[in-house]
């Protein structure tokens, strides 16, 4: 990538009486011989758990797909599905644990 590319971000909390629930990723990462720009905003308007998980895991899940470098579109789609499945499973298990505690 060109060294002349710059990026930035700014978070602004709205008027609602709850904490900021948006999470973002804004970074460059060196993988093999390439430099990748990773940028995303994850909206946590119904709680921070999923947005926080995505911030921490989504890009690694994409980059660890076996065919990321040869079939990028398919790898990205598969990583999104796998990440979504993990979120659903973790959330579902936590709901079951809450039910058992009641």
Automatic annotation (TrEMBL):
Residues 18-92 form the PPM-type phosphatase domain. It comes from the Eukaryota. GO terms for molecular function: protein serine/threonine phosphatase activity. Coiled coil: none annotated. Pfam families: PP2C. Transmembrane segments: none annotated. PANTHER family: PROTEIN PHOSPHATASE. This is PPM-type phosphatase domain-containing protein. It comes from Crotalaria pallida (Smooth rattlebox). The lineage of its organism: Eukaryota, Viridiplantae, Streptophyta, Embryophyta, Tracheophyta.
């Amino acid at each position: 990538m060109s060294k002349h590319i710059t990026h930035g971000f700014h978070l602004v909390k709205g008027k609602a009486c709850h904490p900021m629930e948006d999470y973002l990723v804004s970074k460059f990462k060196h993988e093999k011989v390439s430099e990748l720009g990773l940028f995303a905003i994850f909206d946590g308007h119904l709680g921070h758990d999923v947005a926080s998980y995505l911030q921490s895991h989504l890009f690694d899940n994409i980059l660890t797909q076996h065919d990321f470098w040869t079939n990028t579109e398919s790898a990205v789609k598969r990583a999104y599905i796998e990440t979504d499945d993990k979120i659903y499973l973790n959330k579902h298990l936590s709901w079951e644990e809450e039910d058992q505690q009641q």
